Amino acid sequence: MRYLIDKIGKATLLVALMLALPSFAGADSDTYRFILGHVSRDDGRTLIINEDIRLRVNSETKVFNTRGKQISAHTLRGHKWIYAEGEVNEDESVTAESIYLLPGYVNEKVKKKYPFIKSY
Question: Which residue from 5, 9, 68, 91 lies 20 to 30 Å from 118 (Cα-Cα)?
Fold first, then answer.
């Protein structure tokens, strides 16, 4: 190993490791999103979150209450605050895999009450 480090250089090895890490870390931020926000508009199968994020809802999207219990997707109608996770599409919209209904705005202090909220 020492020979390898001497041969290619520490900087080159460091760059190679940095490039390899995202592939080990799971979901890439460019392909998967965590969204916490306000539903600005409900266009049926698409929710507009925080005025500019298009969140697509389909038959495979799971909807949960704040306790993590799965509930009907029809419950989304009229709900204002959500946390969602999903894949980013080519058109920059996000297809929701899961949506959690929230009672209101969730700040950093209150986030720990909801273990399903991941950092984004």
Answer: 91
Q: In whole angstroms, what is the distance from residue 44 CA to residue 53 CA?
A: 15
What is the topology classification, in CATH, of domain 32-111? OB fold (Dihydrolipoamide Acetyltransferase, E2P) (2.40.50)
CA–CA dist 87, 57 (Å, integer): 11
Collapse the DSSP code of 17 into the 3-class scheme (helix H, G, I; strand E, B; otherwise coil) and give the result.
helix
Record the pTM.
0.72
Paired residues of 94 in beta bridges: 55, 88
| Residue range 44-59, pLDDT digits in tens | 889 999 999 999 999 9
d(CA 84, CA 62) in angstroms, rounded, equals: 10
